[in-house]
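fyi for ur records
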Amino acid sequence: MGMNRSLDHPRDILRAAGVRPRHALGQNFLVSPQNLDRIVEAARIESDDVVLEIGTGLGTLTARLSARAHAVVSVEIDERLYRTACSRLAESRNVKLICADFLASKHRINPEVEAAVLGCRGERRVKVVANLPYQISSPAVVNLLEWKVPLAEIDVMLQLEVSERITACPGEAAYGPLTVFCTYHAEAERLFTLPPSAFWPRPAVSSSFLRITPCLPKHHAEDYQVFSEVVNRLLQNRRKTLARAFEVAWGRAEARLVLEKLRLDPALRPGELAVADFVRIANVFTSYGAERAAPP
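which gave:
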């Protein structure tokens, strides 16, 4: 059951509610019912799944998700949209709406969201399906992959540039920390791309729908915090040679120790390293004491 699938344009729904979209919150609404249905089909939701949606918006995607899933936990930071969605989803009994910031901090998912998902989960699969606000897309994805709540799949609409960063290969301009962390935790596949005209208000860029499937790391970091520090510090110096990047981050002695032990070419650039290389570097630091991976 749930909300009537009105074909009203988001502009008209917002106008009726007396709400204007906020650019600062990345509020760009999908216009076409066909694209909303396309997202739901791509997410392959089953009747026993629990779905987490980040960015309820007008509740249009939420209603479609609730028709398929056991339960939907949907988070909206904007109180005006939250109130509008509450009204529009009043008949959707399996939807829990939360008015909050999805991220409690850059590195932590809001505990209220976590409690709501765990309250619905039981032994069920949890999937994330969302038209992610652009402003939080990168930290949201990384936090979801690092979350203690196990996820079966993350199906999200992202700014095209962000999806390119997630799926980049070593040596490509888009390759960076986001690529490395996502590749460490998951496999990602771009399913389709939508032009700016698919949204209202129109964003300045195209968007891409990504399926991210968490999996066990192919190369295990003995200390994840050391691994994270290594990735961030080396890729902050991505244009330097590996030898120079190490010197800047940890000093010449440490640079020589790690490069010689791993037989890495000192003329390489950090952006040319594969995920396995970052793991090997981190594990060397861990074996000599995690404090060596900290800045001097």
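The two ends are 59 Å apart (CA to CA). thats all i got for now
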